[in-house]
TrEMBL record:
One Pfam family, short name: Meckelin
Keywords: Membrane, Signal, Transmembrane, Transmembrane helix
Cleaved signal peptide residues: 1-25
Name of the protein this chain belongs to: Meckelin
Source species: Anguilla anguilla
Bilayer-crossing regions: 455-474, 495-520, 540-558, 639-664
Length: 909
């Protein structure tokens, strides 16, 4: 080839490259129509760089492969590896290599040779004649054609030989010095030594499409990334002017915004298949075609077709990992195959489009502008690690240890991140014969959490302020009930306890609401999918605070029974003590009674979640299958869905039990607490309870019949009289049947109680210090005197015997009942607030604190399950904690009742 022809050839390619680059720049990373090589017309070839059809030049047509153009018959061709060739008309006979036009010596026009002949060419005078093909030529003797030498040899030297200093990778170049750039090369890789420089030179000088693909692949194969020579050569090639037409865009350009190029209006139905396609290239840069991404295309771990395909069901979070021998990977991929991943969809005009999914190489190359988005990746590389021959066993193997397809929702309106992203991470082993690879494949879904975080922050802010105000109100109420006049350390501790408990309830409400919201919003998507899942010790403290208050109450039993005659009284024969023992035992029994059965609660929750299979709804997919098939892929569980589901089921079962107790069991089976009030009336014993220093509860148990220590016949007769309204009502007030009250004591009454209780404490201390056989007698007498003093004072106080320590009975205002706060302070007289429901005293028992206990059980069960992922273990541990708390509550309260009521623990059974 003459220098003049080379100059004209360069000008031609400059024009073509400029035109092609402008079209690529317009397309960039945006969607483009999906076209296969077979769909290109007869005068168009398939451009493997742009993946679109391009027009052949004049006098050219598509080759059989469809990947390049060929000259028509009668035209000479200049083919340096570019899909577009240069054709010139020939009025005579074209040479065997179609590089020259020759005149036939046997006549004018073309030489038509026989089947065993070939053209004998005289390139000096450009003539040709038909002769028998010599057997010494390279090729098969006796055929009608002879094997030609490499095209670049003719382009450089005009012969079939190339000087050694100009020969690289089997190609001949005018100058090889342009391949000298800074950067590292894998030292033990014959592949890089043979083809790195030649691929750059062939791509940049000859516009060889295969060489451009090969150069692009080498950038990915070199683990040095941006410090490698391949990276620098690619940058030099991509910065040439005019731009190279057939050099693929490996990196997203600095001005290319991924979200701007992503398709808008892209929607998916529930459990619809994501239509993904890959275009493949071999290690040498040859185009291998398009392929659907289905089971096993990108997954290195073996599995069934159904489970592999489940990865591409939209909305299904997928996770697969396994250990696989490196030699098995090499048998499947003896040479690396390079992939470009695309999303195929149909636009509004009904045209099939593909959108390139950006790839982030987490530990390999980075683009010139520092970003990590590229367009190509591979699965296994056993080629780079070969030192002496490309056919030997590799010394090292690189494999894709982690592949993550990340989907950002909603896909219809891309934001700062594109709707689809592929993250890949590689690992290298140096002993492939004995190495085992750990690989994983995952598909995750995410969405912008700004709105959710803003809503959560607002909710927590509002509930936090309300918790603070409620804690201040509760502290003020407690201070008033406890008779606290000033802010002390005890008041501060109480405030913190109330505040932490309220904040714990607020946090639970927000967490539970978030879990239920995502459970309904995510699992309820049956048409277009627009959302996916986002990526408490306070309640325990609240329960502990409640227990401390309940086990430290002051309780007194007032026996109204009088001796039947003066003789018994003077003889020291008092009334029977068994009624007091019986009431104390019954009080001890009802302290831990609840509206729900904990064992039934656990068994029902396990039945719903595990036996029925409701727990499977918490999977990270859009399925609502309770019992999935064994061969079907099971998506991993979402913690937020699992929490929302478990908490919902636990609370639903608990609230259902409470409702059944209040509506059915309490009315038609047994009402333990109102029965306790009736027992007090039958026993002629009142119960005086102080939960705080100046606040408590009173159960009026004074018998309307005068005596309770009577025969069974007399008891029955008394009950019949009550049924027939032949006696007074049981209430504290005349003509009233209200027996339970909330009481707010004055300081004067409380001081009197403290003086009596002080003597009781001194007697108890003296009794504890006594060791002799005769020692306990005097403290015991002192205790008995203190007991009678307390009994006398309380009974006389209730009978209005103390004018300076009197009381009034009134109803609580509606707002006082709601806020649990008394607006009127008892200054001159103690206030008894009527309790029409008859169960206000259960505030110092488990019964009226069911909500706090239910929330504690719910959080305990959910936290253990989230940590262990085992429902049975969570249920067993939750039940164990419940039983431990019940036992502590029972035995500590039993001791407290014994000390306060002076009933020996031996009689509390």
């Amino acid at each position: 080839m003459t220098p003049a022809s080379l100059r004209s050839w360069a000008l031609f390619w400059a024009f073509c490259s400029t035109f092609s680059h402008s079209s690529l720049a317009q397309n960039g990373g945006a969607s483009f129509p999906f076209v296969l090589p077979s769909q290109c017309g007869p005068n168009r070839f398939y451009n493997t760089a742009s993946l679109q059809c391009s027009t052949c030049g004049s006098n050219q047509s598509r080759s059989l492969s469809g990947l390049q153009c060929v000259c028509h018959s009668g035209f000479t061709v200049i083919d340096l590896g570019s899909p577009r060739v240069q054709c010139s008309v020939c009025n005579g006979t074209t040479s065997l290599d179609q590089r020259r036009c020759l005149q036939c010596l046997h006549g004018r026009g073309n030489c038509v040779c026989g089947p065993d002949q070939t053209l004998a060419e005289n390139l000096n005078d450009l003539t040709a004649s038909c002769v028998t093909c010599p057997s010494t030529l390279v090729g098969k003797p006796g055929t009608a054609s002879c094997v030609l030498c490499q095209e670049t040899f003719y382009a450089v030297s005009g012969t079939c030989t190339c000087p050694d200093e100009l020969l690289l990778g089997g190609l001949c170049f005018n100058d090889t010095r342009t391949a000298a750039v800074q950067g590292s090369v894998p030292p033990a890789s014959i592949w890089f030594r043979l083809y790195l420089d030649s691929s750059f030179l062939a791509c940049s000088i000859y516009n060889n499409a295969t060489a451009c693909q090969l150069l692009t692949n080498m950038v990915l194969l070199d683990p040095a990334g941006e410090n490698s020579k391949a990276f620098n050569l690619y940058n030099r090639a991509s910065s040439q002017s005019p731009p190279l037409q057939f050099l693929p865009q490996l990196f997203y350009s600095e001005s290319l915004s991924l979200e701007q190029t992503a398709p808008t209006g892209l929607t998916f139905l529930s459990n619809s298949q994501i239509n993904l396609k890959v275009v493949k290239f071999d290690a040498r840069g040859s185009f291998l075609g398009w392929e659907d991404v289905l089971g096993g295309t990108l997954q290195l771990c073996p599995d069934t077709q159904q489970r592999l395909d489940a990865a591409y069901l939209f909305g299904t979070t997928y996770l697969q990992s396994c250990s696989i021998a490196v030699m098995e990977l090499l048998s499947r991929y003896p040479e690396p195959v390079f992939y470009q991943l695309f999303l195929k969809y149909r636009d509004r005009q009904g045209v099939d489009m593909v959108w390139p999914i950006p790839v982030q190489h987490l530990n390999q190359v980075s683009s010139p502008d520092g970003s990590m988005a590229v367009r190509r990746f591979f699965l296994v590389d056993g080629l780079t690690g070969r030192d002496r021959s490309v056919t030997q066993q590799p010394l090292s193997v690189r494999y894709l240890s982690r592949l993550l397809l990340r989907v950002n929702v909603p896909t219809s309106s891309p934001a700062a991140t594109p709707p689809f992203q592929l993250l890949v991470e590689y690992n290298t082993v140096n002993d492939p014969a004995n190495a085992v690879a750990q690989v994983s494949f995952a598909v995750t879904y995410s969405m912008s959490e700004e709105d959710m975080r803003r809503g959560t922050a607002i909710s927590l802010g509002v509930l936090g302020v309300l918790s603070l105000l409620l804690a201040m109100l509760e502290t003020s109420s407690w201070s008033q009930r406890a008779g606290q006049q000033y802010i002390s350390l005890t008041v501060i501790v109480k405030f913190l306890a109330f505040l932490i408990g309220n904040l714990a309830s607020a946090f639970f409400l927000v967490s539970f609401g978030t879990g239920v919201y995502w459970l309904i919003a995510f699992k309820g998507q049956r048409s277009t999918v627009n959302m996916v899942l986002p990526s408490s010790g306070g309640t325990a403290l609240q329960v502990i605070h409640m227990l401390i208050v309940q086990v430290s109450i002051s309780i007194f039993l007032i026996d109204w029974e009088k001796p039947r005659n003066a003789a018994n009284a003077s003889a020291g024969l008092g009334v029977s003590a068994w009624r007091i023992f019986f009431v104390a035992n019954e009080w001890n029994e009802i302290q831990t009674a609840r509206k729900l059965n904990p064992l039934l609660q656990l068994l029902t929750v396990l039945l719903i979640l595990q036996v029925i299979g409701v727990e499977n709804i918490a999977s990270r997919d859009l399925n609502l299958v309770l019992q999935p098939e064994g061969a079907r892929y099971s998506a991993p569980t979402s913690p937020i869905l699992r929490f929302g589901l478990n908490a919902s089921v636990w609370l639903a079962v608990g609230l259902a039990q409470v409702l059944l107790y209040l509506v059915i069991y309490e009315r038609f089976v047994e009402d333990k607490f109102r029965q306790f009030v009736d027992l007090c009336s039958l026993s002629n014993v009142s119960v005086f309870i102080l939960a705080h220093r100046c606040y408590g509860y009173y159960i009026h148990g004074r018998s309307v019949h005068g005596h309770a220590d009577v025969s069974i016949e007399a008891v029955r007769a008394n009950l019949r009289r009550e049924e027939a309204n032949l006696c007074a009502l049981r209430g504290l007030e005349p003509n009233s049947d209200i027996q339970t009250f909330e009481i707010a004591l004055t300081d004067r009454v409380r001081q009197q109680l403290d003086r009596i209780m002080l003597s009781l404490a001194e007697a108890s201390g003296a009794r504890g210090r006594s060791t002799g056989a005769e020692g306990p007698q005097e403290p015991q007498e002192q205790t008995t005197k203190a007991y009678h003093a307390m009994k006398y004072f309380l009974s006389s106080f209730l009978e209005h015997a103390h004018k300076d320590m009197d009381y009034i009975v009134k109803d609580k205002l509606l707002l006082e009942r709601i806020m649990k706060y008394e607006f009127q302070r008892p200054v001159e007289r103690t206030i008894f607030y009527r309790d029409p429901d008859g169960v206000s005293f259960t505030n110092v028992l488990y019964f009226s604190n069911e909500l706090t206990l239910l929330l504690f059980d719910t959080l305990l069960f959910c936290i253990i399950d989230l940590g262990s992922q085992n429902l049975v273990l969570a249920a067993v541990l939750t039940y164990a904690v419940q039983q431990v708390l019940d036992c502590l509550r029972y035995y500590i309260s039993r001791r407290n009742v014994s000390e306060k009521t002076l009933v020996d623990q031996r009689f509390l059974i």
